[in-house]
Amino acid sequence: MLLSRIIMCIDMDAFFASVEQKANPRFRSKPIGVIGGGPRTIITTASYEARKFGVKTGMSIPEAKKACPHLILVIANNARYTHTCRGLEEIFRRFTPDAEIYSVDEAFLDITATHHLFGGPEEIGRSIKRSVKDVFGINCTVGIAPNILLAKLVSDIAKPDGLRWVKPEEVGGCIEDIPVKELWGIGARTAERLAVLGIRTCGELGRTPSSLLRSKFGIYGEALRAMGLGGCSRPVQTNTEEAKSIGHSMTLPRDILERTDIEHCLLLLSEKVGRRARKYGYLGKTVSLTLRYPDFETFSRRKTLAEFTNDTHDIYKSVLRILEGIGLRDRIRLLGVSLSTIVDDPHQIPLIEEERKRKAVLRAMDCVNDRFGEFKLTWGSYFRREREGGVISPSWKPSGVKSVHLK
After folding, report:
1. Shortest CA distance to 312 belongs to which of 250, 246, 260, 400?
2. Beta strand pairing status for 106-110 and 140-145?
3. How much is the pLDDT for 250?
C-alpha cells in the first residue's frame, strides 16, 4: 500500500502589498495598491484594506480609484520582494528538503518524511506562520492535503492568515460543492465548456463518466475526472529547475508602430533571453515572437532554427524574420521573445574563427554586465534604454533560469 503524501501549500497573503506595509509604517492598515512604474500600469496586488472596497488585481488605476477614492498607490519594489522570497525559502527548508518555490509568493513542501520530527503537519504549519511573521512581519496561509492540487485549493479556502489540514478521508466532503473553476489548472474556458455539459462542481465532475470527458476533451478528460475526485499525480518538484523555455516580455510605455521602435525593443528582449540562456548553460532551437494590440488581442508566431543557439543576434534576426511575415493591423502594446526546444549547452569551441570571436564578445559582455549591472555594456544599435518600470513576474524563482536580474 502506497503511503499517502502530506503536501503543504504556503501562500503569502497580499504579498507585494504586505511587504510594502511592513517596510513603510504609514501604509499600515491603509488601503494600498501596488503598481508598476510605467504610465500604463495596473493594480498588481491590493492590500486587504483595499479589497474591502472592491479593488482587485488587474484593475486599471481609474477603476481602482473609483472603487476606493482614498487608495494609496505604491510603485513596486522588485528587489524587496525577491529578497523576502529568498528568506522565506530558508524558513521552509528548515522543515524539509523537499521544497518547491513555485513562485515569488507561493511554495509547496512535501513533509511526508519529516512531519513527525516537528510535531506533525499542523505544528509545522504553525511554526512556519510564526517564523514568517517574526522575521518579515507579514502573514501567510497554509493548506495541507494529500497532493498539490488539494493543498493549493485548501490554502485558497483558508485565506487570509489561515491554516487548514484536509486528510485523505475528508477529501470527498471537502471538494463536493467546490466550483470546478476554483481548481488549480482549470481555466475560464475549460470551466465554460464543462458548464455546457452541466458540470459546475467538483462532485459533478468526479461523477462524470470518463468516456464522456474523453470525447469532449481528449486525453485531458481523464485528468479532469481525476481532479474532480481530488486526485493529482504531480509531485513536488525539488530538483534543479529544468528549463522548457526562456522568455521575456514587456508592456510598452506607449503603443508603437514604427519599425525602428519595434526593432529597438526586440533587440532588448533578445539580449535578455540570450543572456539568461548563456548564464544557465542552455541552447534553444525555436524562437517565438509574441505581440499584443491595444485591444488586448494577443498572438504568437514561432520559427525553428537550423542550429541550437543562445546568441543574441541569432535570436534577434529570427524574431525580425518572424515580424516580416506578420501584417500588423494596429500599433503594438506588448512584445515578447522566447527561446524553446531547450538543451544543455555542451560549451564546444566553434571551429570557424568568426563564430569563436562572436562567442568571445558575448562572454566578455556578460562578464561586464554581471559585475557592473545589466546593460552597462550593450550593442551600439541599442543606444536608448527606457525605464521599464514593470512588476516582477509571478513565475520568478529565487534560483535557476527564472531568477532574472532585478533592481
Report:
1. 246
2. unpaired
3. 83
319-376 pLDDT per residue, tens:
999 999 998 889 999 999 999 988 988 766 666 666 667 666 666 766 766 665 565 5
Contact yes or no for 249/291 (Cβ under 8 A): no
Q: Which domains are assigned to the chain? A: 176-228 (1.10.150.20), 246-372 (3.30.1490.100)
107: Cβ contacts below 8 Å, ≥ 6 apart: 9, 10, 88, 89, 92, 99, 100, 101
The secondary element (H helix, E strand) that includes residue 279 is helix 259-279
Q: Sign of the CA dihedral 200, 201, 207, 213?
A: positive
Q: Which residue bears the cell 478528460?
A: 221
The contacts of residue 251 (CB under 8 Å, 6+ apart) are 38, 40, 292, 333, 334, 390
Crossing angle of the two packed helices 220-228 and 210-217, in degrees rounded to 10: 130
Pairing mode of beta strands 99-103, 106-110:
antiparallel
Instruction: Round to whole Å and give the CA distance between 224 and 127.
Output: 34
pTM over the 0.90 mark:
no
Does 106 qualify as catalytic in the annotation?
A: yes
Half-sphere exposure of 330 (CA within 13 A, CB side): 13
Q: Where does residue 204 rank: exposed (0-12), middle (13-18), buried (19+ CB within 10 A)?
A: middle
146's grid cell: 494529500
CA 273 – CA 79 distance, rounded (Å): 20
Nearest to 304 by CA among 315, 295, 296, 293: 315
Residue 269: burial class (beta carbons within 10 Å; 0-12, 13-18, 19+): buried
Predicted pLDDT of residue 386? 45
Q: Looking at 20, 49, 100, 106, which residue is catalytic?
A: 106
Q: Environment class of residue 264 by beta-carbon count within 10 Å: exposed (0-12), middle (13-18) or buried (19+)?
A: middle
Question: What DSSP assignment string belongs to 164-187?
Answer: EE--GGGHHHHHTTSBGGGSTT--
**3-class state of residue 237 by DSSP:** coil
Structure confidence by residue, pLDDT tens digits, 127-168: 999 999 999 999 999 999 999 999 999 999 999 999 999 999
